Amino acid sequence: MIRKLSLAAALGASLALPAAAQEDSILVQSTTSTANSGLYDYLLPLFSETSGIRVDVVAVGTGQAIGNAENCDGDVLLVHAKPSEEAFVDAGYGVERFDLMYNDFVLVGPENDPAGIDGMGVSDALAQIAESGATFVSRGDDSGTHKKELALWEAAGIDPQSGSGEWYRESGSGMGATLNTGIGMGGYVLTDRATWIAYGNKGDYGIAVEGDQSLFNQYGVILVDPEHCPSVNAEDGQAFIDWLLSEEGQSAIAGFELDGQQLFFPNAEG
Amino acid sequence: MQDMSEALGLAIALIASGDADLREIVALSLYVSLSATLFSCLIGIPAGALLAVMRFPGRGALVTLVNALMGLPPVVVGLIVYLALSRSGPLGFLGLLYTPSAMIVAQTVLIAPIVTALSRQTLEDLHTEYDETFRSLCLTRLQVMGALIRDGRFALVTAALAGFGRAVAEVGAVMIVGGNIDHLTRVMTTAIALETSKGELALALSLGIVLMAIALGINALVQSVRSGAARGSYA
């Protein structure tokens, strides 16, 4: 009996231990693009060092990140789909949305460029892909990149769903996984530039379309509303947001480089 | 195929270097999956023994249900546990989501049916064999279950190993309830998924090789303990 009791106590202790480590930490619901590029590995230690606050990041698609934050499973939301972010704040889930930084999307494709879109504007390029029936691999996961892609199709006047399962293929997974799929299929993929630069399995792929005004990719940051979610660590979450928007945080973001290229461009309104 | 040989080399280099991050991830994988296996045995073996010995209306349906639950998809388990542990869910006040404890809960839900179903089958076979002896000794049901579990302990270890194998290999459930948070809830399988999505295929594969080596080591350890014990009991 004593053995059983001590076993139960040990089990109880083992369950309680990790929960005790939750002091002075915040949880950020964010996107795969920021995490896969290595931004957080670079940025978070800088913040934690000065503030003593540990930051944990859950990296999922923007749609899922917003859903998780609506369920109060996070203190800060850092994503890239402005209309959805504004809807999140308007619905009372978030306190206020701030512009944080931007980069841009690029359309990547195989070297032989089957649709012949190299150097085109994005609308023309998409129209050309649809017309030629060249494979296009979409995220298809309600992420910020997916929302952006759908908006670009709409602007080009094309309904890609008409080619779904044929030339238009929805992977339903994260940015990197979709790149893996797209490159495996020889298809075109819309990706954020940061993920693309950091991505390690490029094969013979390169950027086919870039620099178009409509490929702008804005990231925003929002504190989950403690009035809606009493569990939110508002003090530390706000400290993190304040730091990100401060001169120090903004220059830290600007200082993040990979292969000599700057991946994110800070644009908080100071 | 260049990735394959590169991965093997990386795996060996990773293990040899004793990389601190890798050690942390391996330790968490083992902590989570071994805890889940332990809890599953505490639930599954007595439950399997009950199902093996007791006769009651609806028993057949219950056995079928437990057998079917062996096929629970990890991602569904993850989703259910997420909804339960989410701050807006019924158990949200515990604050367990995105902790190793949540991962243990999810994996326990995932593998308890496996341990239960395999234990039930093993113990029922034994029960059929010994039924007359038990009757002649006038044992109570509880004594019968105790005797069956003691006699079937080696087969039950295999049931536990099957559960452990499933737990340590799954990615769908721990990804959702753990969140793959660096230095907090990142385990082998979620790290492999992450490196794959970064396009670092060789590194991902090398982590897979490390995971396989660990699983092999644990099975070999259990096997040697078991055969040692078996020899002892026949001596």
Salient structural properties:
A: 270 residues, alpha/beta, D-Maltodextrin-Binding Protein, domain 2, 2 domains, 11 helices, globular, B: mainly alpha, MetI-like fold, transport (chain B), ABC transporter permease (chain B), MetI-like_sf (chain B)
Walk me through the structure:
The complex is a heterodimer of chains A (270) and B (235). In chain A, α10 crosses α11 (247-254). In chain A, strands 1, 2, 3, 4, 5, 6, 7, 8, 9 and 12 form a 10-stranded mixed β-sheet that branches. In chain A, strands 10-11 form a two-stranded antiparallel ribbon. Chain A has helices at residues 2-20, 32-36, 39-51, 62-70, 82-90, 122-132, 144-155, 175-185, 193-198, 234-245, 247-254, and strands spanning 25-31, 54-60, 76-79, 94-109, 136-138, 168-170, 188-192, 206-209, 216-224, 257-258, 261-262, 265-266. Chain A contains 11 helices and 12 strands. In chain A, a hairpin with a 2-residue loop joins β10 (257-258) and β11. Chain A is α/β, with parallel strands linked by helices and 270 residues long. Chain A folds into 2 domains: 25-103 and 218-266, Periplasmic binding protein-like II (D-Maltodextrin-Binding Protein, domain 2), CATH 3.40.190; 104-215, Periplasmic binding protein-like II (D-Maltodextrin-Binding Protein, domain 2). By secondary structure, chain B is mostly helical. Chain B has one domain (27-201): MetI-like fold. Chain B is built from 10 helices and no strands. Chain B has helices at residues 2-17, 20-53, 59-69, 74-85, 100-137, 141-151, 153-169, 172-178, 188-197, 201-234. Chain B is globular, with a radius of gyration of 20 Å. The termini of chain B are far apart.
